[in-house]
Amino acid sequence: MKLLHVDASAKREWSNSRALSRHFIDLLKQQVPALEVDYLDVAADTPAHVSEAFTVATYTPAAQRTPAMKQTLAASDALCERVLNADAFVFAMPMYNFSMPSAFKAFIDNIVRTDLTYKVGPDGSYQGQLAPEKVLFLTTRGADLRPGSPLAGMDALTPALRAAFAFMGVPSPTFVDAQPLTFSAVQEREAALVRAKAELAALAQRWAA
User: Fold this and answer.
1) Of 10, 32, 100, 127, most Cβ neighbours within 10 A?
2) Using a CB cutoff of 8 Å and minimum separation of 24, what contacts does 12-18 make?
3) Distance (Å, rounded) from C-alpha 141 to C-alpha 158?
4) Phi-psi region of 97 (alpha: psi -120 to 50; beta: other; left: phi over 0)
5) Burial of 33 (0-12, 13-18, 19+ CB in 10 A)
6) CA gap 17, 157 in Å, rounded
7) Cis peptide before 180 (omega within 30 of 0)
8) Do 139 and 47 touch, CB atoms closer than 8 A?
9) Are 156 and 95 in contact (CB under 8 A)?
10) How far is CA 15 from the centre of its chain?
């Protein structure tokens, strides 16, 4: 199994999402010794944000792109190749102001690419080119946004991730959300991490099976 592991937290050793993603990878390695991990830290190696040159190059047919256009798209092409070569994904990130870190949004903007991660059919329909069954979004949230909580309607992260990756061919990802953390009592934080680790342990067993 070749797994693409992407961390997106701006924090380093203080990051709960990073710690939980490492924990999950360690659990998986214990059960899948041949696991191959391709690691990307988009907080440290942030993909370029979309520019006018990038947009023009993206929507120019490949055969008509100039050398400058190809250079503009080179890093994005490489990211798409890494994504397309993976059998499984672990995307770990905190929730920032109810949505994703800008570094991860830049990652998405670089991998949603015509004729690479999605194609347009003769009838105009969109056909996602990713098809891994093992996709985990591991998120950490400072507040409690679980269904039934007062802030549940403020979760813009989950639907944004679902939509972008469904478009590329991932209809049923797994979400493990550790919450509430920052804005909660110590006991609530500890309970949130225990719940997340239990979900991750069960998921590692399913992936290994």
Assistant:
1) 100
2) 15/94, 15/140, 16/94, 16/140, 16/178, 16/181, 16/193, 17/92, 17/93, 17/94, 17/138, 17/139, 17/140, 17/178, 18/92
3) 11
4) left
5) exposed
6) 14
7) yes
8) no
9) no
10) 16
Q: CB of 179 within 8 A of CB of 94?
A: no
Structure tokens at 171: 């209809």
DSSP state of 63: G
Asked if 67 and 75 touch (Cβ cutoff 8 Å), the reply is no
- Residue found by looking up tokens 């990038």 in the block: 54
Six-digit token string for 142? 């400072």
What pLDDT, in 10s, does the model give residues 102-121? 999 999 999 999 999 999 99
Tell me: the pLDDT tens digits for 158-203? Answer: 999 999 999 999 999 999 999 999 888 999 999 999 999 999 999 9
Per the CB < 8 A criterion, the answer to whether 200 and 20 are in contact is: yes
Q: What tokens were used for 50?
A: 């979309």
Short-list 69, 77, 73, 18, CA closest to 42: 18
Predicted TM-score (pTM) of the model is 0.96
**Residue written as token pair 């239990």:** 198
The residue with tokens 């041949």 is: 34
